[in-house]
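ok here's the first one, seq then struct tokens
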Amino acid sequence: MTRIKAAITGVHGYVPDYVLSNSELETMIDTTDEWIRTRTGIEERRILKGEGLGSSELGAKAVLGLCEKTGTDPAEIDMLLCATATPDMLFPATANLICDKVGAKNAFGYDILAACSGFVYALVTGAKYVESGTHKKVVIVGADKMSSIVDYSNRNNCIIFGDGSGAVLLEPSQDENGIIDSILRSDGAGGKYLYQKAGGSRYPATIETVNAGEHYLHQEGKAVFKFAVENMAEVSYEIMQRNQLSSDDVAWLVPHQANKRIIDATSNRMGLSSEKVMINIHKYGNTTTATIPLCLWDWENQLNSGDNIILAAFGGGFTWGSVYLKWSYDS
């Protein structure tokens, strides 16, 4: 009996219209365009403006574009998973809100919170439902409004993050294309280096937590950078070894867009030339769970059926992982 695989059969992205450039940041904090570009590779990022708009607004626009592109009636969606580090609310799930916004009345869904690795975690989770034969159309969304938890007086953090979303459709495949393998890992000991302290059950919101700035993202850059370089590179190399892939076999690396130097370290460990690496960090910054689907969206017209693609991510938690898939369609 032929094994059912979960194949990506469509991808779409969405970024807000407002562009926050490095030159504008120069007017807000003590920094320069050159300092930002040389350390991160970022030139601009997108920001969601408007009262009462959260990650579900971003995610819904990506899903509606995905449905239109693939000819999918939202009512046909069986399941929707939303990877996000900035949910609209603790509950209901942002996935539920997106389903309501797009008209996915027959879908069940929930959120996955694994920081910047959330999209690959959600992709692998959704794939299992397709592989089991119980679900035919599963949508995976990565959506984050990082501007909602960034302190724009902190020059080390506010230069990095932007807002955006991306979504893919997973459907059954019985040929060689689809998700082949994955490696997902986590280490809670890294939580002290990258976190949002207040707003959960340990430190509920109070006037004191707000005044102390404890609802903003906290990051110890050097520790995070070191761990990310080592582990994102190693897990990407490991999945190549496990599947007997040489650098010549890999068509594309799709890395999480956190920092250009981390991306370079990963591609170097895999022996890949820069021509095989998707990079759009200069346009969007780090959109957390949205970076990988936004890359696939930007490069969709260069992808061909059967292309060997490796996704790689690293995030707070710490979480990290890699997915090996064969692309399922020609653009």
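and now the second one, same deal
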Amino acid sequence: MSDDRFEPWVEGYLDYLTGVRRLAHRTRVDVRCTLKRAIKGMAVARPAIPLWKLSLEDYLRWIEKEREAKRSATSIAKELSHLRGLLDYAWRSGRSDRNVLDGFQLADSGRQAAPRVLSIEEAKRLILACPRNTKRERHDRMIILLLYGCGLRTSELCRLDLGDIDIERREVFVRRGKGDRERKIPVPEGLWTELLAYRAERGGKRGAFFRTEAKHARVSDKCVCRVVAEASQRAKLEVRVTPKTLRHTFATHLMDQGVDVAVISSLMGHRGPAETGVYLHALPGRHEAAVSKLGGNQREGKA
């Protein structure tokens, strides 16, 4: 396999993920990165042996190397899921006798790490550190506000078009989220006022909502990350802040205000409430409060 492309059969598997299983392009990129990482790691002890011909012992040694490199259990579990999918495809295609990772799970992968989030005070500091005196400043400030105020993913923010702002319903329409799922997100009142002002200043009715200043091209993931990093530096926040931090903060603050998990799941574009449950880890006492609330409902005769 070359550095850039795998052999045709593996490239066909990646095409299958997006063309048949309809997984997001970002997922395909993640799987490709996992396969490259695994091939490189396995080549030390098992050179020129394809992934689907390796034994479970080979994968166990690779896992141990990943742990020694301080990779988290969550990251390793995600990579194992990617590899399990490839091995299952190889088995079904007759390229291997069995999927050696079928049913295999890390003993410590069941517990998800709490996502990094900002406190209310830190979020306020971040927004206050985003001035709106110039057109460029208002552009960058709106990026921060939409990431935190609507919980958008970076890719969703970059793909946002002027036509995705529903003036009548006061919503942002995400046309193609993760897994090609669509959703509509109500815009908070304070953010809505600034969003309308920015939209009017942006002008036009079609095209990208956020454009670069020099070439007027659609902003990239890298551009959004830079905006967030510069804002967090101005706010003098001690924690590392990324676009994903603001998305996690959006969900956590909603949950802290008592918003139902199913509602948050819908706003986040998750596959279901179970995926949203990771935010319970960030809120001290949330499990106890949930149990207490359940007990109260039972005493009142509620389902």
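notes on #2: Residues 11 and 276 are 32 Å apart (CA to CA). Residues 8-92 form one domain.
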